[in-house]
Automatic annotation (TrEMBL), chain A:
InterPro entries: CBS_dom, CBS_dom_sf, Diverse_CBS-Domain. Keywords: Amino-acid biosynthesis, CBS domain, Methionine biosynthesis. The keyword Amino-acid biosynthesis applies. Residues 30-87, 107-163 form the CBS domain. One of its GO terms (biological process) is methionine biosynthetic process. It comes from Methanococcoides alaskense. This is CBS domain-containing protein. It comes from the Archaea. It holds the Pfam family CBS. PROSITE patterns: CBS.
Automatic annotation (TrEMBL), chain B:
The chain crosses the membrane at residues 83-107, 113-132, 144-169, 175-195, 237-255, 267-286, 292-314, 357-375. This is Kef-type K+ transport system membrane component KefB. Gene3D superfamilies: 1.20.1530.20. One of its GO terms (biological process) is sodium ion transport. It comes from the Archaea. GO terms for cellular component: membrane.
Length: 163, 390
């Protein structure tokens, strides 16, 4: 015998999850208290930041808090291991990064950003679809927060009543 | 389906020979050229249309990825002023040396100019290892080399567009025709800049929300092909369009997602670019190489000297001392990818003959071998002189 009542409950709960997920906005659970790197910070200052905190990626901002790029652990590792870099890494752009002396010369200058009004569902979709682990959140060009994969997982867990 | 076997063997040998050369401390491009030469002798005696098409795609994707991954408009703007003098001087001297060879050997005006254009670009990647090893990447000449190398590639690509259009007129163009060529170039670049400013960012904002698989990757490729096609419509060459299309996408965040970049690079360097380099190896006329005469020797020597002297003079003009100027001149000697794209177009359009083609491929190979060694010597020369003075 088919348990139709159980199916309906499940469909209802799936629907309600999808609805709730689409009604939750990133601004409600993004990290607002950010550690940022200034675009004019020296390499030593950046290394200090990486030593003091243990985030994977830091947003780079201009004096008026406009998001101009990101610096992640991969860039730092590349710079630290410059003498061991394989030939495939000897591109013009990498050479420019290797010889850079401030944040703006070594950062990735085209950061992916989303609006604080992006929904939880859409953000989760983008993370899965494009294999992106974190987003900078920008409003009117200014950095207002960050969100990373664990934050999304935590919120989805909460919604599903598993947290 | 013999072509399947050919492609399979090209990719297999290109990667194997490339690996051997990499391990020996040289760029894999030499291995890829060699794989083509070997296959050209042993198996692929006739260039099929499919192979030719794939090689053309290789040239398009080589320049597209160069623009897409290696150029940042912001960096270009910032460094244009400081590098312009030294770049223009070294390009003018290198170009003149190339054109002079053509005139000396009574080649046609177009062929002579083409040799000059092929002498103009620099492949800085060849000497980056030496700069790192000698701790010279951040030095004054090191940093100038990096900036100048991008500019002389761009100048080379624009010179190419002029020569290509000249070739279509089949004669030296009149003043009006030169003006039309320049107007077409300006119109093409203006359209691409407008697309970048008003269309590309908005387009990718929508594309990344699409549900179909690989939407961003597909649209990056669409724009690569669109730019190449539009350039042809404007009477420029497809590779020029691909390069400019790549530059226009280089700061569009969604088009530059790491995941997408690695797929574009995979398509380019995993398939098309090795086929392009191998195709050059296949197209090499071994008989011509066997009779290396005064012409080939002069091409090699003057191509290297042109950059050395041009680089030296340019650096002196902007205030470098003799040692730094020498280091800069040696550092801009190497040639690789862009030069090979230029000469393959020249050969395909019938601008240059087998002898010029083979001599320039030989020049590329020699420059890759000797530039790192000479750069090391130049840096050691400066260090010795400094320690003697102190």
């Amino acid at each position: 015998m088919v348990d139709h009542d159980g199916d309906e409950d499940r469909i209802r709960s799936v629907r309600s999850f999808a609805e709730m997920c689409s009604e939750m906005f990133i601004k409600d659970f993004m990290t607002k208290d950010l550690v940022t790197i200034s675009e004019n910070d020296s390499i030593d200052q950046i290394l200090e930041t990486f030593d003091k905190y243990h985030f994977h990626t830091y947003p780079v901002v201009s004096e008026d808090n406009v998001l101009v790029g990101t610096i992640d652990q991969n860039i730092i590792l590349k710079i630290l291991l410059v003498h061991r870099a394989p030939r495939i890494e000897h591109t013009h752009l990498n050479a420019v990064v290797f010889q850079g002396d401030t944040a703006k010369t070594i950062m990735i200058p085209h950061p992916i950003s989303i609006s604080p009004n992006e929904t939880l569902c859409d953000t989760a979709d983008m993370i899965l679809k494009h294999k992106i682990d974190r987003f900078c959140i920008v409003e009117d060009g200014k950095l207002v927060g960050m969100i990373c994969k664990p934050d999304i997982i935590k919120e989805v867990y909460k919604l599903r009543g598993l947290y | 389906m013999e072509i399947l076997l050919h492609i399979l063997l090209i990719l297999l040998l290109a990667k194997l020979f490339g690996e051997v050369l990499e391990r020996a401390g040289f760029p894999s491009i030499l291995g890829e050229l060699l794989s083509g030469m070997v296959l050209g002798i042993l198996l692929i005696h006739q260039e099929s249309d499919i192979l030719k098409f794939l090689a053309e795609m290789g040239a398009i994707f080589l320049l597209f990825t160069a623009g897409y991954k290696e150029v940042h408009l912001r960096d270009l703007k910032e460094s244009s002023a400081k590098a312009s003098v030294v770049t223009v001087v070294q390009v003018i001297v290198a170009f003149s040396f190339g054109a002079a060879i053509g005139v000396y050997f009574h080649l046609s005006v177009l062929e002579s100019i083409f040799i000059g254009v092929a002498f103009s670009p620099t492949s800085i990647g060849v000497v980056v290892r030496t700069l790192i090893d000698m701790d010279y990447l951040s030095s004054k000449p090191g940093s100038m080399m990096l900036t100048s190398a991008i500019f002389d590639d761009i100048i080379g690509i624009f010179l190419l567009s002029i020569v290509v259009t000249m070739a279509t007129y089949e004669q030296f163009p009149s003043g009006v025709q030169v003006l039309i060529i320049l107007l077409k170039m300006v119109a093409f670049v203006a359209i691409m800049f407008s697309l970048r400013k008003w269309v590309f960012s908005k387009l990718f904002d929508q594309i990344h929300r699409m549900h179909v698989k690989e939407s961003i990757f597909a649209f990056v490729i669409v724009i690569a092909l669109f730019s190449a096609y539009l350039a042809e419509v404007f009477g420029l060459h497809a590779v020029i369009g691909a390069f400019i299309g790549g530059v226009m996408l280089s700061d569009v965040p969604h088009a530059k997602i790491e995941h997408v970049q690695s797929k574009v690079t995979g398509l380019a360097y995993g398939i098309f670019v090795p086929i392009f380099f191998a195709f050059i190896g296949i197209s090499l006329n071994i008989a011509t190489l066997q009779t290396i005469g005064l012409f080939s020797v002069l091409v090699v020597v003057l191509a290297l000297l042109g950059k050395l002297i041009g680089g030296f003079l340019g650096s002196r003009l902007i205030g470098f001392d003799n040692y730094d100027s020498l280091i800069f001149g040696v550092g801009v000697m190497p040639r690789a990818g862009v030069e090979l794209v230029l000469i393959s177009i020249g050969k395909e359009m019938g601008i240059i003959g087998d002898e010029v083609f083979s001599a320039i491929v030989l020049m590329v190979a020699v420059s890759i071998f000797v530039s790192p060694v000479l750069l090391k010597k130049a840096i050691q020369f400066k260090n010795r002189a400094n320690s003697n003075n102190t």
